[in-house]
């Protein structure tokens, strides 16, 4: 059970009618599933709900959206769309760097601001925070909030929350997974979530270009620090050669951690802007959120990210230098 006292948020929701939901840039299944599940709970309570995110979600998550309208900054969203809201709830982040574009609208409105998050990295967003960094997923927090609101767990909401929690726990293999996590999962299955179908929709819909990209990326895997770090890179040339985009690299960093003896991993993905997106993963004593934060990013101890300026080779060199500092500290 979350350590959060949900009563103040329940009172905020009860006292207001128009509620806007947002999550972080490049929404993953936890962010998108959590906000759409919360939207479902709020609509059951008779609230008017809008969902506006900093950027579009990947096509692979379209199955989560269904009949919901999800808009994003840059797609005709105006200041009026944000001024409409009496309450603005941000889910799955409390960092300005994760709200590009949207932050400008957020700052201009007089709406009541709320954050629901489970990440270590944090900024002051001028919001009332409902945060539990021990929670394995934002989906777990939304599940608890739904209970506190006495809302119905429909098959649709159960599917959204299952996808959210399963992905952010690495399909329940990360150390953040607890017995309570599995209690929630049991409730979601009872309510109609179908694990085999959700897994198929999340992980077994690859295109041939995506598989070819995976082959190129895995062929570039390197190790350092006596095999304790594994990493790989993806260049714009790789995308051109395979007919893919940066979104298609989602999850590839996890393959680096399958190497025996590895304690940490990262993937450096060159963007069209020539910036470089770094996704970090780790286990044991390697707290890679600190490395991500040093580059203006953030996240969890064992799953974080950051955006660096290019070129690609320079970004990788900088990241390796930070890992050297961490490795030397651990060695001592």
Write a short abstract of this structure:
GO terms for molecular function: hydrolase activity; nucleic acid binding. Helices cover 41% and strands 18% of the residues.
Please tell me about this protein's structure.
There is one protein chain. The chain has 332 residues and is α/β, with parallel strands linked by helices. The protein has two domains: 7-202, inorganic pyrophosphatase (n-terminal core) (Alpha-Beta Complex), CATH 3.90.1640; 208-331, Roll (Diaminopimelate Epimerase, Chain A, domain 1). It contains 14 helices and twelve strands. It has a six-stranded parallel β-sheet with strand order 3-2-1-4-5-6, covered by helices on one side. The chain has a six-stranded mixed β-sheet with strand order 7-8-9-10-12-11, with helices on both faces. The radius of gyration is 20 Å and the shape is globular.
* Strand line-up across the major sheet: 3-2-1-4-5-6
Mean pLDDT, to the nearest integer, reads 93
Quick one: overall form?
A: globular
Strand content: 15-25%
CATH superfamily of the largest domain: inorganic pyrophosphatase (n-terminal core)
List the secondary-structure elements in sequence, H or E: HEHEHEHEHEEHHHHHEEHHEEHEEH
Strand tally is: 12
Please state the CA-atom Rg, rounded to the nearest Å. 20 Å
What helical percentage do the residues reach?
40-55%
CATH top level of the largest domain? Alpha Beta
- Major beta sheet summary: 6 strands, parallel
Number of helices: 14
CATH architecture of the largest domain: Alpha-Beta Complex
User: End-to-end distance, in Å?
Assistant: 37 Å
